[in-house]
Amino acid sequence: MLYNIFIDPFVQMVQMPDLLVQTLWEGLVSGVLYALIALGFVLIFKASGVFNFAQGIMVVFSALTLVGFYEKFSAAGFSGHAAAFVALILTAGVMFVLAMLVERVVLRPLVNQPDIILFMATFGITYVLIGLGEMVFGGDPKQMITSELFLPSGSVDVEMLGGLVSFQKIDIAAAIIASAMIVGLALFFQKTRIGRALRAVADSHKAALSVGISLNQIWVIVWFAAGLVALVTGIMWGARSDVSFALEIVALKALPVLVLGGLTSVPGAIVGGLIIGIGEKLGEFYWGPLLGGGIESWFAYAIALLFLLYRPQGLFGDKIIERI
């Protein structure tokens, strides 16, 4: 048993390096997408100090809205690509309207309230979006409009390390698009005036107000940015499977990512996403048969539990010191 757990998996990695590369690639793609989802949480937490539990359902709602608009415009006689891009623009508009409504209806009345009040408010937003999504779009899974958005299909097979490694083209596109968005958001935080204002708001609402920063505008911007992140995430994950409310469970994989990387750290979200993505794929492929499979469903949460016990601030989070 000890041999099977501690030695045999590494022997397999050495004997079949092509399978190792395949597993690492699949983990890398999942990790980048987890990191992208986590960035949506980080954006809102850095700007308002609120953990947005609704980020997962925002991924689902934005993807369902995109497909719903596409179906309407396609039925109205628009060509496939035209209908898809009109639907994409309108979906971005819906996420902007959602950001304005959240700021006006939820955040503005709760300024300077305890964090737990704001956190519970995001639960309310979650169930409002679930109910609205089911009422408008129904509960049946839908097919993501990948080809209409010029996303590639098929695979590229590469001979390497004595075997054949298959790279799905949609995975390559997802990794590139998600990586570009992560880099763009990181630069946005560090280099722009709005990014600096976001960090100031995160440190203290009252101090930000005292130097002329508008909380209302910042919150609309950051919720809209999180909505765009959710939209891109929904497209990528929907293209890999389908668009349904089950995507919310995938989106919540970002929670362990945040525990690993730290709630306020963009680099932490990236590193945490890669650790979770690659770790769960390696665990499922090499150790899954020993444990009956299903490692992907709990591996991330087990790692998060260990970090909560021994390093609760995460790899890149700030250590909180309270003076009493």
UniProtKB/TrEMBL annotation:
GO biological process, one term: amino acid transport
Recorded family membership: Belongs to the binding-protein-dependent transport system permease family. LivHM subfamily.
InterPro entries on file: ABC_transp_permease, BCAA_transport_permease
Topology term for the membrane: Multi-pass membrane protein
Regions that span the bilayer: 20-43, 50-70, 82-102, 114-137, 170-189, 218-237, 257-278, 290-310
Coarse class of the protein's main subcellular location: membrane
Protein's name in the database: ABC transporter permease
Annotated localization: Cell membrane
Database matches in Pfam families: BPD_transp_2
GO MF annotation terms: transmembrane transporter activity
Source species, domain of life: Bacteria
